[in-house]
Structure prediction request, 67 residues.
Amino acid sequence: MGEDGQKATWINIWEDPAAKEYVASLNDGNSTVPTVVTKNTHFIAADSDAPDQVRQLLANATPATAD
Prediction:
């Protein structure tokens, strides 16, 4: 993801049970990775278009803030 990858928060769901549960809640009970989550959407980044989709999201991203 290059420099834009620094805008993302990377979470290892195998080390964070709450994150694993959250990912499973988004994916019909499956702990599927990589799952990309934004404020407006989420998707499993597994097909050939995924890197371009993620790059586009990151290029347009603003830093997250705590709610």
In short: Residues 17-26 form the longest helix (10 residues). The mean pLDDT is 82. DSSP finds two helices and two strands in the chain.
